[in-house]
Design goal:
Number of domains: 1
Mean pLDDT: 84
Order of helices and strands: HHHHH
Low-confidence stretches: none
Length: 93
């Protein structure tokens, strides 16, 4: 585990012991672990808020929750690509 991933995990952990199993599930089952952790931090879903979000939005399903985060990351990349194209090519013209 890299120091960067460790710092992201500790930030999402936020001294809530209930978060630990979900973080380790994320680390061992998703190759985009760092991106997902970073997005969780950007969305301020850390500690208790992460547990509540997982419980009420996704019925305690880490698969649905982490896939939702991956979808948001991919949408951000898509819009960034469109913005770069518009910047370089003048709104696609």
């Amino acid at each position: 585990m890299t120091e960067y991933r460790r710092s992201l995990m500790l930030e999402v952990f936020d001294n809530q012991k209930d978060v630990i199993p979900w973080i380790f599930h994320l680390q061992f089952n998703y190759r985009d672990c760092d991106s997902i952790l970073k997005k969780l931090i950007d969305l301020k879903l850390t500690g208790t808020l992460f547990i509540q979000w997982l419980k009420y939005e996704h019925d305690n399903s880490p698969l649905c929750a982490f896939n939702d985060i991956l979808r948001k990351i991919n949408n951000d990349k898509k819009y960034l690509t469109l913005a770069q194209r518009d910047f370089f090519y003048g709104n696609g013209k």
